[in-house]
Specification:
283 residues; alpha+beta; N-terminal domain of MutM-like DNA repair proteins; Helicase, Ruva Protein, domain 3; 2 domains; five-stranded mixed β-sheet; four-stranded antiparallel β-sheet; 8 helices; elongated; DNA-binding
DNA sequence: CATTACCTGCAA
DNA sequence: TTGCAGGTAATG
């Protein structure tokens, strides 16, 4: 499911609903691999009785600030979802973590594929998580110049670079394809080959793709829901992603699908063509 | 850099 | 039955 827009929307819709409540019980933890740190029994002990002070997002992690000074960090990976449920709701077999709140409501962490993860972090753990990730693409600090700096000297193909969370945080397979479509850049172009204009276009493409998704409530391919259980509609506005065989909205050429960096990759072979050697030399 | 693993469900 | 899926970590 979740890339930056979906994680942001999931965090906000969850945070708004549970801020100020107290977690009175940790229920239904039936998939221990979900808890990465600390050990599951300690995780439950440290979480029980804690009040929710606030929330945030870093990269694709949802962060829940607790009154103990610790942070509950949740990662939805491919198929995870977080929803706030009424007192009497019953978790289905794919729900592997339930937080019972002091007003009786429940937070369900549902994840059919069991890739989702939970961590309980102290200040040092949170700092380490932060340090492991790169720039936030919607932050003020992420300027065109900053992106140029990040690309400089990297011969890696641009798409896998966009997917590297330690370089830029929060972009996944959907928005990498969409950002490159906006910028008219072929996914296999070496990052350091991009011209100044192309870097500026990519910067704009990244932000445009992410902001459009936020506006549309995120993209729901299958599992994504915000914490009210609502689907996003941005999947109805894709330009390249998941549009193999359909016309490019810009030039009407047929969108093709290939594999780049082991990921399905969609792009327009006409307006995202690799420039000829002569063109490159001119830049 | 490529491959495999982690999991399940669903479409081809 | 096979292959593929929004992610990431661990291997050659």
């Amino acid at each position: 499911m979740p890339e930056l827009p979906e994680v942001q929307l999931a965090a906000d819709s969850l945070g708004v609903q549970i801020a100020g409540t107290r977690i009175v019980r940790v229920e239904r933890l039936d998939w221990y691999r979900m808890v990465e740190t600390p050990a599951p029994d300690t995780f439950i002990t440290l979480l029980t009785g804690r009040q929710v002070r606030g929330w945030g997002r870093r990269a694709k992690w949802i962060l829940i600030d607790l009154d103990s000074g610790w942070t509950l960090a949740l990662h939805l990976r491919m198929s995870g979802s977080l929803t706030v449920q009424p007192v009497d709701a019953l978790p289905d077999p794919h729900t592997h973590l339930v937080l019972r709140l002091d007003d009786g409501r429940q937070v369900f962490f549902r994840d059919p594929r069991k890739f989702g993860r939970a961590r309980l972090l102290d200040a040092d753990g949170l700092a380490a998580l932060d340090a492991a990730h790169g720039d936030e693409p919607l932050s003020d600090a992420f300027t065109v110049e900053r992106l140029a700096e990040l690309l400089r000297g990297r011969k890696r193909a641009i798409k896998p670079l966009l997917l590297d969370q330690s370089v830029i945080a929060g972009i996944g397979n959907i928005y990498a394809d969409e950002a490159l479509w906006h910028a008219r850049i072929h996914p296999l172009r070496p990052a350091s080959d991009l011209s100044t204009d192309e870097v500026a276009a990519l910067h704009d493409g990244i932000r445009t793709a992410l902001r459009q998704a936020l506006t549309n409530g995120g993209s729901t391919l299958r599992d994504y829901r915000n914490s009210y259980g609502a689907r996003g509609t941005n999947q109805d506005h894709f330009n390249a992603y998941d549009r193999e065989g359909q016309p490019c909205p810009r030039c009407s050429a047929t969108i093709i699908k290939t594999v780049v960096a082991q990921r399905g990759t969609h792009y327009c072979p006409a307006c995202q063509a690799i420039p000829s050697a002569a063109t490159i030399r001119r830049e």
